[in-house]
Description:
Strand order of the largest sheet: 1-2-3-4-5-7-6
Oligomer: single chain
Order of helices and strands: EHHHEEEHEHEEH
CATH topology: Aminopeptidase
Mean pLDDT: 89
Strand content: 25-35%
Amino acid sequence: xxxxxxxxxxxxxxxxxxAAIHVETWRAAYADxxxxxxxxxxxxxxxxxxxxxxxxxxxxxxxxxxxxxxxVGWASGGPNRDADRADHSEIYAIYVSPEIWSSGIGRLLMxxxxxxxxxxxxxxxxxxxxxxxxLKFYHKQGYQPDGTSRSVPIGGVNLKEIRLLKMGSTSSExxxxxxML
Length: 181
């Protein structure tokens, strides 16, 4: 990590930087998972428009990571969207610029999101099963699959997502971890 690292609430003025990281990270992380034509066609402008609306609505927890004055990552979370896990909040997305992957920034951002969402409930998240880099990261943060999956159409292909829960927070989660062993 270079310079001073700050994690703060995202503002509408951050939408362009968030969109740039969003597109850049998808292209790097999903190069072997999604069709190249789909990734090449991602629009930073469309993502920026989405993020301007999202950040204006102020409905979710949105954070950015700055190194010096440059945004290098972001995360979003809020109420869980899964009816069968009403006892959890959800981390919707966490992205760090590929140029600083494995620097510790993602870990700091994850801890901040977990802390900010803990007032709601412990978080869960969804990840593409083929995204081995992300799965490794989440496992290191204490997240494990709970056995739930779904098919999501992205870029003209159906991809499998798996749900991960932070283990060790509740007795039911400890039981789930023991059942998986």
